[in-house]
Amino acid sequence: QLQLQESGPRLVRPSETLSLTCTVSGGSISSSNYYWGWIRQPPGKRLEWVASIYYSGTTYYNPSLKSRTTISVETSKNQFSLKVNSMTAADTAFYYCARGILTVSRSFGWFDPWGQGTLVTVSS
Amino acid sequence: EIVLTQSPGTLSLSPGERATLSCRASQSVGSDYLAWFQQKPGQAPRLLMYAASRRAAGIPDRFSGSGSGTHFNLTISRLEPEDFAVYYCQQYVSSHGTFGQGTKVEIK
Asked: What's the pLDDT tens digit per position in B88-97?
């Protein structure tokens, strides 16, 4: 059974960079049938897709966050990571990593499963 | 960006009743590019449906999905105590997937 686990700081100072890692267990991150993504959810608000990556390294970003965001993959460790620069209070959210399923036409599909999520608070 | 609007915001029902949740898209997402998730407090979202009407593995058949284009529904035929949660729809017709704001199903 595939499992994902986020790790990283719970508290980030304003203007600093957030670094999160997602460790995948129970399956290979190098499968060509899937992609990998980060989704965030400010407390009490809707989910927001942040970024996605294929095992090959091809990346896709939410346009609203693209200038501040970097997603990367390390296949040797079965991990993928997210960096968000210039953090502000508006970036306070639960951050989830998830496996993305490719559709039959090989386009982006739904996310399943998800990690348990980690709450990142931006505060001085 | 495709905007998804869910209604109602909150649905107050009793166990055993039928729940119908709506998800409307600002532009067509076809018939295969919509998913539904269930989220309980303190938990990650759990996939219920994909391709609008296909149940994910392990999801009971009291959950069903329908719709195409810009209007989709999630129906829970008879609410069980564990079904009281928040439900989100997600479109993935574009590489920039978006989610609805959620419908909370609460115990009446």
From this structure: 999 998 877 8
